[in-house]
Structure formats: structure tokens, C-alpha cells
Amino acid sequence: MPADDPPSLDGGDPDLVRAAIASGDPLPGTDGFAGTVDGALVRDVLGRRPVFVDRADPDRWNFDRDNLDDPRPLPAGVVRNEDSERTVWSLPDLDAVDPDAALDAVREAVLASTRAVDGDCVAVAFSGGVDSAVVAAGVPDAPLYVAGFEGAHDVAAARDAADAMGRDLTIVDLSHADLERAVPELVAATGRRNPMDVAIALPLYLVARRAVADGYDRLAVGQGADELFGGYAKVVDPADDHRVAANTVRGARRETMATLPDQLERDVLALRAAGVEPVAPLLHDRVVAAALALPGDLLVADGERKVALRAAAEGVVPEFVRSADKKAVQYGTYVSRELDRLARQDGFKRRMDDHVGRYIAALCGEEYVAPDDR
């Protein structure tokens, strides 16, 4: 195949990606990549950068789904040549290593990745939890931003953590009008209409919009920490949790990692629509590799989640931040609660199936489509 001139590649060095295609190495040392190299369309193993193919015209592809008539995401780990697609990269099934060595590797990887973030024109999405605090510690001069409604858990936690870290914090106070304006913009950018995706993306989008207004064009985020390090409740006791098929903590963690391509597509598109480029240091290959080698009791132990990440954060962030639990962003910001309130105020009562989804369709001026028919 003739080489592209130049390669149209988002993230990653073309030579590194070529070598990864030839070797099948899923973690060649990047923070994700997508685009074309030597005529082949590629997307990294975790789908950290989205790329789309037109169903109606498979020769057309784009990083922006809006530029295609009928876009579908290229699956993570796939190399596409003309009309054929093959999975070249899959997450490695690494054996657990010695606990001390595993902890050392995680700490080294996390600190190296967060400290490698270029601090120029970057802000940090900050919730006051260990994930975003570790990221913030890597860029000590970057301003911190949090969004939420009055009384929201994330705002209070971010304020306390920022004070303890001696950092400047901008609080983006949310209103119902903010949600009403932002929902159609998010739906247009991401193609997502279900209430969960919308509620997760809204705080990120609104924080990013404020950071752009303040002159920043990059936003550092803690994405990936829950999936890599066992942050979900369903990982704690997977044998008795219907939400996962695995019977072991490591197996359940692997299931949560499989959700990353879909989640990251949503988040990246939302942030880019707001005008910033996301920076996710906890999703660098070095961190992924270190996390995959963790034994189960360094993911979850005695009900505590993200054991290894919390250990890596010792001495890096305040102790109460390192050990604190945190609500999911849609709940910690009250965005999910207020979307529900707005839906009910607009006549979409809880007795109706998918009442918030119906409200979102109405906000966007669209005909409602039931989840099973989408």
C-alpha cells in the first residue's frame, strides 16, 4: 500500500503504529490513536480516540461523526483495509505479579504519566476524588474546575480538596437553563440520547465550556481510573453480582475495561464539541499495562476499591482525598436529579416509560424512539 502523505493520524507516532500493526502489540507506548497509516484505518485497543466510517459509503471516514451521512464507530483494536476489517489488538491477559512489584509499577506509571502532561493552556476537571486529584498533582500550576448544582457533593468535595492542595478552583454553578441549552448540543455532538449518557457527559461539557471561555484549550481528566483499578461496586463481589458475568475481581475488572471504547467515544466527542482537547494521563499504555498485572486484592480489599491507585497516591494528594469515596459524576453533580426534575416539570412523569429519555427527545425537537428500537 502506498504511504499516506502525511498520515492522517490522531495521536501516536506513525512509525510506532506501523510497528504495532506488524507485531500485534496492543500497548506500544501511546495514549491512544485513530486514523490512517499507509492507507489503513486504525483505532487503538481501548478506543481512546474515536473514528467513524460511513455505513452508506464505506470509503468515507472521519474523526467527526457529523461529517458522515450514516456514521458508525470503527471498533477498538481494528485495522481496516478497503472493505475488510480485522481485530489486530486485544487487551493482553496478563498474569498477576508480586504485590510489591505490582504496586511499584503502578506508582511509577501513574506518576510518570501525570507528570508528563504539558501544563501549557491546560485546565483540570476536578471532582475532589483520588482520580482527578492525582491528575491535578501532575500539573501543579493548572487551574481546577468543577461543575454542579447548589449543594452538590462534587462541589463540596472539590472545594475541600482544592483548599488542602493549595490550588485555585473555579466552580461552575449549574442551572436548569444550562441543561436545557446543553442537552441538544450534546446530542448533536455525540449521537447519544439515553439519559445515562447525557447525564454523564453534561458536567464534563459544561466544565469544558467554562474552561474555554477562560482561555484554555485542553482539559486534563481522570477518565479510565475506575475501569483500570476496580472502582465500580460490581467488581467488589462479582460472584454475587448479576451485573457482571465474571466470578473473580480481575475478571470483573476486565469486563468494565471492555466498556471503555464506548464511554470514551462519548466523552471525547463531548469535550471536543465544547472546544477542548481531552488529556487522559491515566489511560496511557504504561498505566494500562501496570494495572492489568495487579492481583485482585490490589484492586479491591475489605470493600475498599482502587487499592493500588490509592497506594500510588500516598504522599501525592491529601490523605482524606486519597481515601475518600466518590459518587458517580451524574449523581455527585446533581445533574441526573435535575434532569429528572425538568422532565417531570415538562409533563413527563415517572410513571411513563423512559420519562427522561422522552424529555431529552422533546428538548432536541425529535420524535421519541424507545430504547429497544434505537
Please characterize this protein's 3D structure.
This protein is of the alpha/beta class and 374 residues long. The chain has three domains: 9-87, no CATH class; 99-327, Rossmann fold (3-Layer(aba) Sandwich), CATH 3.40.50.620; 335-373, no CATH class. The chain contains 15 helices and 15 strands. A five-stranded antiparallel beta sheet has the order 1-2-3-7-8, covered by helices on one side. It has a five-stranded parallel beta sheet with strand order 11-10-9-12-13, sandwiched between helices. Strand 14 and strand 15 (304-305) form a beta hairpin. Helix 5 packs across helix 6 and helix 14 packs across helix 15. The longest helix is centred in the middle third of the chain and has 19 residues, at 195-213. It is globular. Residues 1-11 have a biased composition (Low complexity). This is Asparagine synthase C-terminal domain-containing protein. Residues 1-30 are annotated as: Disordered.
